[in-house]
Design brief:
By secondary structure, the chain is of the alpha+beta class. The protein has a single domain, classed as Aminopeptidase (3-Layer(aba) Sandwich), CATH 3.40.630.30.
Length: about 130
Amino acid sequence: MLGINLTYDLTQIDVEKLCSSIQDEYWGKNLSKDQILTSFRYSSCVIALMEERQVGFARAVSDRVTCSHVKDFLVFSECRGQGVGRHLMNGLLDHPELKDVKSWYLGTKDAHDFYQPFGFKRSPDGIYMFMHRD
């Protein structure tokens, strides 16, 4: 997508919009703003910006050596279907703290088709997905 920039600088987060958007998702509706912000401090995060405006966010929890778990992945509703998600996922997989991690995991109820082109495979239970990079 043209005009999309990625940053790993947490000061670029639109805190109010991001926290509200996370709380609107099934996986974040029981989280307080303080809990959400605390989770960012203990994760590797990437922010998608378009014209200096945040349009997406992703974070992973990792030991930074053997495995990473994608915890939050969000493209703001007004920007979905424009390639932001693909750009954001590539930014997370290439994050300077995570780029050498081989095993990745995530849980999703409805976005399996999005993650499969990146190499993720469904687990037998159908919710969790995993990927092992060479």
